[in-house]
Fold these 2 entries.
Entry 1:
Amino acid sequence: MRAACLLTLVLAPFAVYPARVFRTLSHLKPQESDEVQTVAVRDLLVRLLGDRAGSFLVTVNSSLAGNDRLETYTLSSEPGGKVAVTGSSGVAAATGSYTYLKTYCGCHISWSGIQMELPSVLPPVLSPLTVTTPNRFRYYQNVCTSSYSFVWWNWTRWEKEIDWMALHGINMPLAFTGQEAIWYKVYLSLGLSESEMSDFFTGPAFLAWGRMGNIHTWGGPLSSVWMEKQLSLQLKILKRMRSLGMITVLPAFAGHIPQGILRVYPKVKVTNLGPWSNFNCTYSCSYLLDPEDPLFQKIGGLFVTEMIKLYGTDHIYNADTFNEMSPTSSDPAYLSAVSGAIFKSMATVDPGAIWLIQGWLFINSPLFWQPAQIKALLHGAPIGRIIVLDLFAETVPIYLKTESFYGQPFIWCMLHNFGGNHGLFGNVVGVNWGPFKALKFPNSTMVGTGLTPEGIEQNDMIYELMNEIGWSSTPINLTAWISNYSDRRYGQNNADARAAWQILLRSVYNCTQIWHHHNHSPLVRRPSLNMNTEICYNSSDIFEAWRLMHNASPSLGNSSTFLYDLVDITREALQQLVTDYYFEIKVAYGKGDLQQVMTAGGVLVYDLLLELDRLLSSQPQFLLGSWLKAAQSMASTKEEAILYDMNARNQITLWGPNGNILDYANKQFGGLIQDYYTERWGLFVWFLVQNLIKGEHFHQDKFNTAVFVLEQDFIYNGKEYKSSPVGDTLETEKRIYLKYFPHSGKSRKAKKNLYMKL
Ligand SMILES: *[C@@H]1O[C@H](CO)[C@@H](O)[C@H](O)[C@H]1NC(C)=O
Ligand SMILES: *[C@@H]1O[C@H](CO)[C@@H](O)[C@H](O)[C@H]1NC(C)=O
Ligand SMILES: *[C@@H]1O[C@H](CO)[C@@H](O)[C@H](O)[C@H]1NC(C)=O
Ligand SMILES: *[C@@H]1O[C@H](CO)[C@@H](O)[C@H](O)[C@H]1NC(C)=O
Ligand SMILES: *[C@@H]1O[C@H](CO)[C@@H](O)[C@H](O)[C@H]1NC(C)=O
Ligand SMILES: *[C@@H]1O[C@H](CO)[C@@H](O)[C@H](O)[C@H]1NC(C)=O
Ligand SMILES: *[C@@H]1O[C@H](CO)[C@@H](O)[C@H](O)[C@H]1NC(C)=O
Ligand SMILES: *[C@@H]1O[C@H](CO)[C@@H](O)[C@H](O)[C@H]1NC(C)=O
Ligand SMILES: *[C@@H]1O[C@H](CO)[C@@H](O)[C@H](O)[C@H]1NC(C)=O
């Protein structure tokens, strides 16, 4: 069945979408000359390989792409042990270089680290290789990534990310940095005051939701220094992206306006969008300008004009008007008029404008967005002038239910992660088969693949897989692929590590439900007596993966990527142990067994969580201190440093003044476990113990009130956290393993000793 399916996929023509759709997108292409792109890729290889970059002969030749514009690279060997890489764009040449490094040299490049042991002589390319991607576009970013991950980034970090994009074949990144400076200028020119604007903008860590009209003011004010700095950062980002041949997606006007507009234009037609996500109107209830009001074209036009003056354009713009907020009318005529007006505000300024829409609204509000409503919205602009991101297609593909978005082109995207949580999960089967099914769909309008995680720097494996799929013409043999992945990531073939990855592949990475794409572990949630502890795999799998990684540590302990994974997989196992202890505590409490509540609670609060904190603190990627230091380093005054510190801490914990979106963007950082999660669990156990002693019931409300004080204390504790690792990862992991690995004789003995001590 599967083999037959594979065969038809192989034989399927690439460009299955209608020619007219294709033609409207033909101007979306690299702007820079082949020469500029060639230099950009050579520079990238120097950053990556130093002197060894000289062994690569890189050329960009755009005619390699052919009439269908599908990007292509070729690899061959040249005399003198050199490797020739020719790409139809900078991105194609960078992708070809990384493919060579992977398949011929066993190298690996990821967010958490690189493995770049090059053989002293580059292996020859035995027969020249030509690879063409079936996807016109490989898109990257969610509008939320700019807040959950990029918010505190400087140019050093951005440069690294853009290199990562190019090497992994991404040619269409969102470029959302530095837009507030333009909004500010536009609104002041319309007569708004500085204080009206400072009431409007959120703080840096919440800009994504300010831009979408979900909230305003919270975490602000945003200083003019911040806006100017972001503007110069954006200039560098765009220049580098374009020099590599990427097509950058800029913002456009979606209709959300500051309240000050109502003062300057009292007769303007607006809708109040009402409260969003447990916020009240102090920070929510933004105004949406009626797209049919003439002011809409004025603001939209001014914004796009100003932006193009500063940033240039690649003719594609993102605007999301109804993200998690339903329109006031479901009348199809109204919805078409709305999207027509939004599109017009771009197209009047840039006749070649293409409007990129995140398809999240269709997933988030399926009751509102019935076929007639979706069709009306998408048909408000001519066919081929909207590209929809099928945002969470590995799990909830929308093209299936909408006759391929009623003829508008779409990009098949893997969302994978909500809120940038740590936690091992993913849907490898959806990723591996989904894009090919979508291309084969009757009258498919798919024009690319993409990555749309809300937050990055987690689960490297599934992003590596998705990026490869973007350049692949067939699904990949996952069993074979994961062994290769393990070998490259650690720089050697290690049987235990391979076995661990095989287990992860079929357990944590084979989860298909929406629920599983967000970390709901009791560890990172406010405690209660009815917490959801469901996971999508057999928990013994994560312990077995841990055991295998533990066994691999004597051989792989010098590899930085291994140490990261050892910590990450141990972290996942300990997270499961927290669930197990939670059960023990809950059951004992139900039986009125005070002693058992105290012992199990004691192990959890006084040992397990603190050991997890120590483990995380031993690796640079898991430090609260780094997140906070990056935030503070963006500040230009002491007051700003305090505000950014609050922004950074609030986003990953309370998310709002009152815990409005509590723990949505939870992280497992050294420092955070100790001073936030452990404090909570300590109070919970204390409540239960007091209840049992006094013969009272547990009142969640009382607990919530008390725990909120601790949660706020964490945000304002003013404590400095280490931004470089402390302690030896291997030693710490070993100690924890001996104490806690389930069902081992030693583990039981150690736990018994621990109980005795407590
Ligand atoms: C680019 O490729 C085309 C077609 O393969 C070839 O004719 C042309 O000479 C190449 N240009 C350069 C500068 O190498
Ligand atoms: C709205 O939320 C703010 C911030 O938490 C709070 O100060 C205010 O009292 C709330 N207003 C109402 C009407 O509940
Ligand atoms: C595909 O498009 C053709 C031509 O427009 C149409 O006749 C056919 O019904 C469509 N097929 C499906 C399955 O929608
Ligand atoms: C996938 O690769 C594995 C390991 O190399 C091999 O045993 C298996 O037969 C392959 N599966 C298919 C469908 O080719
Ligand atoms: C795994 O690596 C081997 C050796 O480089 C290669 O032949 C094979 O195609 C790779 N398989 C996959 C699925 O990547
Ligand atoms: C994922 O799970 C499905 C069924 O739940 C199974 O058929 C499939 O083989 C699994 N895939 C992997 C890669 O383990
Ligand atoms: C989980 O895996 C273990 C070990 O392989 C096995 O003994 C147990 O029956 C499995 N549990 C379930 C619910 O499948
Ligand atoms: C790790 O590096 C140290 C110091 O270079 C070396 O002594 C040790 O043998 C290495 N261990 C492994 C397993 O390669
Ligand atoms: C950029 O940020 C990183 C991480 O916060 C920091 O280590 C680095 O020193 C910064 N670089 C510059 C040039 O400020």
Entry 2:
Amino acid sequence: MGSRCESDSYKPRNWAQNYRKTMATVPAARPPLAALPEANTWQKDMQTAFRRLDPLLRYLELDPAGAPEALAADPDFPILVPLAFAALMGKGDWHDPLLAQVLPLARETLPTAGFTSDAVGDLPAQVVPGLLHKYASRALLMVSHQCAVHCRYCFRREFPYGDLPRGKEDWDRAWEYLATAEGVDEILFSGGDPLFLDNRRLEKILASAGALPAIRTLRFHTRLPVVLPSRIEPGLLELLRSAAADRSIVMVIHANHARELGAECTDALAALRNAGALLLNQAVLLKGINDDAETLADLSRALIARGVLPYYLHQLDKVQGTAHFETTEARGNELIAELRGKLPGYAVPRYVREIAGAPHKTPLSA
Ligand SMILES: *Cc1c(COP(=O)(O)O)cnc(C)c1O
Ligand code: SF4
């Protein structure tokens, strides 16, 4: 054969060099971010959040007289919805999956057999005030008692936040515990929502955590990038970026439906990735909201498109006031099996439930 073999021009030694040249022409990995919000925008956004039902219904063009069932907010867990989240809801739709997460039904106040105030055993796991140590390698600090939104299915809606530490001495006990806790290499910041703290307080907390050499990972469990994306502002990103210089920063966001991931949230997530955080999502399986395979698949696709890995799909915790959201575990398992047929393995969340006293979350799907 006279034709020249392709391999004649193959020069393996040059490969790495060429590769490097090619890579140098690839644009910076992430697209330029939309202008980030001003530092104090999020606090202003909280001032204008919906705290009463009537204005929210008016904004959504819903007539209270047309409600499909009786509404009534539990005075201990009033309605709270930032405008950024309400803006993602469909107008005139009582069954909107985002509205259903925040709409207080009169049914919430009826006691339901098997639904209690501390279904997941938080109180016995509280080793010092504000610190839950359930699992060997990680401990959870409840740094804030506030959230930007009140999710009606919240597993901590009955938690006695009033008893959380307030003064410095109380928090010192938690830091002392963490300094000597055998085998703990990760601190989870939760609450409430940890990003509801202002940057000054977050900086102190990050400094305290940074002084513990055994702690390798700092994890935030937060719904703010979704419901109050203006919280992801330059000051916070700077704090995270500097903490990420010598620790892993993991951010577990909380979205239950693809429609929650709006344009501002998408920018906030890009900014968080840019600051060096690993992004995961946890969702709760909610009847009438996401208990459908295509809805869950859309959520996973929307998360992956934004660089967020679906982590947990939680079976609802049996907390008083949440029974109307419950779906059976059998149904949950069917949904996971359907998801496996639709999605790559990495986009199928782990379906788990929390059993009080167990050494980790309990997997429900085979
Ligand atoms: C859920 C939870 C964690 C985290 O569990 P992972 O399986 O690591 O995500 C840690 N501490 C407490 C108290 C929890 O409830
Ligand atoms: S954001 Fe989380 S902790 Fe806050 S109300 Fe919703 S579910 Fe509860």
